[in-house]
Write a structure and sequence with these properties.
There is one protein chain. The protein has 334 residues and is of the alpha/beta class. It is built from 12 helices and 9 strands. The N and C termini lie close together (10 Å).
């Protein structure tokens, strides 16, 4: 069975607060670990009233204390927002707290509107240009493979698994050149998926850390007892996505029956574009759609996203998805 992992945006539900979202993230991580998922990643987002994972390394630490075996990490840290030295210290600390379990996915996007640059006191456009250099420097701070004038403590010697993230060809090319595993954000930006994976594999150069290409692809996956139940659950995320893309982001709303049918053609098309990396339905439907996606992409891992208004529904979705794909033991034992 292909390894499955979980991407959690730590959603804040309507009527709830950040504290509720973080508590629910810890519970979800426990469920993912028990069900046999390989990793649980938190993504860095800022200025989003419906997402509580902005202080990503802090959220990861909380999740680490709620679990004991599942790999935990960032999917990802938007490096232009940060100083590589600070990220080395943060993830060196996480590795000291949770040895052998920490992943660090690196992305180039800012993760928020341009006004974020002013809040961060940074020129994010210029910082993005230095992204390849910053990745190399950050890796050196953790591994010591390049001599630097400063030492990150914690940081140097930490066994953090570094990943490159992307939604375009840029990340694929950089991951290939640096010999890093690559994760593609096909759950919200599927247009360049096939080209990016092809580029990554064809241009890959072995490194001291990875001898052959290793690609992960993201899917929206919501599994319930029936197709209809799953579609209803998924309407919460559909609403949140449409609101985000139309400039009105908010907290995760309750589900609405027949939501897509209420939308204009433009919004329906926006959601339909995402369906190529989406498995929403009964266990049989989810199994078939994930299998078709894996056959198409030849991904080495799948990471599943997909928020539900009822936290218990997402917990059950993770269990049903793993059962649907035929897991009979934890991924860590395979």
């Amino acid at each position: 069975m292909i390894p499955l992992s979980v991407l959690d945006l730590v959603p804040i539900r309507e009527g709830k607060e950040v504290s509720d979202a973080l508590a629910e993230a810890g519970t979800l991580a426990k469920v993912a670990e028990e069900a046999g998922y390989k990793r649980l990643w938190v993504a860095e987002h800022h200025m989003s009233p419906g997402i509580a994972g902005g202080a990503t390394s802090v959220a990861i630490s909380h999740i680490g204390h709620c679990t004991s075996t599942i790999r935990i990490g960032a999917g990802g840290i938007m490096l232009p927002n940060h100083n590589p030295f600070v990220i080395a210290e943060q993830f060196g600390t996480l590795d000291a707290l949770f040895p052998g379990r920490v992943d660090l996915g690196l992305g180039r996007a800012p993760g928020a509107a341009p006004v974020l640059a002013q809040a961060l006191r940074k020129n994010l456009g210029q910082a993005a240009e230095y992204f390849p250099q910053d990745v190399v420097e950050l890796r050196a701070m953790l591994t010591g493979d390049i001599e630097l004038p400063i030492t990150a403590t914690p940081g140097l010697g930490a066994k953090v698994e570094l990943w490159m993230l992307g939604s375009s060809l840029f990340g694929a090319q950089l991951a290939a050149r640096l010999g890093m595993p690559y994760a593609f954000a096909s759950h919200f930006a599927p247009d360049h998926l096939d080209a990016a994976l092809s580029t990554y594999r064809s241009e890959f150069r072995p490194s001291d850390y990875l001898d052959k290409p290793h690609a992960m692809a993201a899917m929206t996956v919501i599994c319930a007892d029936s197709d209809g139940d799953a579609v209803l659950l998924a309407s919460s995320q559909d609403q949140a996505f449409v609101r985000l893309r139309t400039g009105d982001p908010g907290k995760l709303p309750p589900p609405v029956a027949g939501y897509r049918e209420t939308l204009d053609m433009s919004a329906q098309g926006m959601l339909a574009r995402l369906d190529v990396a989406r498995a929403v339905g009964s266990p049989a439907t989810v199994r078939e759609r994930i299998a078709r996606f894996v056959e198409r992409t030849q991904a080495d891992e799948i990471i599943v996203s997909g928020a539900t208004y009822d936290p218990a529904a997402r917990q059950q979705s993770l269990r049903l998805t793993m059962e649907a794909l035929g897991a009979d033991q934890p991924a860590s034992a395979k």
